[in-house]
Amino acid sequence: MAESPSQSGAQLVTHQSPGQQAESDLTSLIFEMSQQVQMGMENMLKMVNEIDQNSVGIKEEIEKSKDFAMEKKRVLEEEKEQFQKAAYTILDMLSNSRG
C-alpha cells in the first residue's frame, strides 16, 4: 500500500530534530506572513487606485462648478450694469422733465 504525500510528510516531521522542526515552523510562519503582507499590499494598492480615480472625478466636478460660478458671476455683472444704465436713464429723464 502506497503512502500518501501527507502521511510521508507527517512521518518526516516526526523524524526531524528539534532544530530542524523549529526551522521548518519558522519557514512556514514567515511564508504565511509574507502571503498576508502581499495580500494587504495588493488591497492597499486597489484602494489607492480607487482614491486616485475618485479624486480625479472630484477635481473635475470642482472645475465644472468653478466654471459655472464664473459664468453666473459674469451674467449677474451684465444684469447689474443693465439695471444701473436703466436707473441712470430714468433719473436723467426725471431730472430733465422737472427742469
Features:
single chain; 99 residues; mainly alpha; disordered N terminus; Polyamine-modulated factor 1-binding protein 1; coiled coil
Short description:
By secondary structure, the protein is mainly α.
Question: Taking Cα atoms only, what radius of gyration do you get, to the nearest Å?
Answer: 39 Å
Query: How many helices does DSSP assign?
Result: 2
Structural class: mainly alpha
The dominant shape is: rod-shaped
Identify low-pLDDT runs. 1-6
Intertermini distance: 128 Å
Organism: Cardamine amara subsp. amara
Coiled coil: 59-86
Keywords: Coiled coil
Protein name: Polyamine-modulated factor 1-binding protein 1
Task: Give the helices and strands, then pairings.
Blueprint: H1 5-14, H2 18-98
Can you give a write-up of this model?
By secondary structure, this protein is mainly α. It has helices at residues 5-14, 18-98. The longest helix has 81 residues, at 18-98. The termini are far apart.
